[in-house]
Amino acid sequence: MAQFILSVTHQLYFRTRDKIYRIYEDKPWLEISQEKLADELSKFQQTGEKYMMVYDYQIMNKLDYWDAHPEKITKDELDFWHIYTLITEEQYLHFINLIVS
Question: Residue 16: which residues within 8 A CB-CB, separation 6 or more?
Fold first, then answer.
């Protein structure tokens, strides 16, 4: 799944109630304004480029789901969330342990 998402997505964003970040692989996130996001999304619409918006509540839902259904965790998806620092190292190791047990 991680390879698929990375192959079709040109940009990844993380959004909380009051902040927006452009996410980079293995780099610090860059906070951007609502106006900058709107400009970028408008450009993507014109060029056909793909983007992915991740919301803070999605992360919590995913973590709760994985805890309740460890058999549904895939290594590719877990790696994707980890590479883009959507989950912490501690959370990553926790779920790796659930996969192998």
Answer: 55, 56
- Cα distances (Å, whole numbers) of residue 7 to 10, 50, 53, 100: 8, 10, 15, 28
Neighbours of 57 (CB within 10 A): 11
Gap between the Cα atoms of 23 and 29, Å rounded:
5
* pLDDT tens profile 42-99: 998 898 888 888 898 999 999 999 999 999 999 988 998 898 888 999 999 999 999 9
23-27, 28-32, 84-88, 89-93: which range is least confident on average? 23-27
Q: How far apart are CA 75 and CA 99, in angstroms?
A: 8
Q: Are 82 and 92 in contact (CB under 8 A)?
A: yes
8 A C-beta contact, residue 11 and residue 25: no
CA distances from 36 to 13, 29, 97 (A): 12, 15, 39
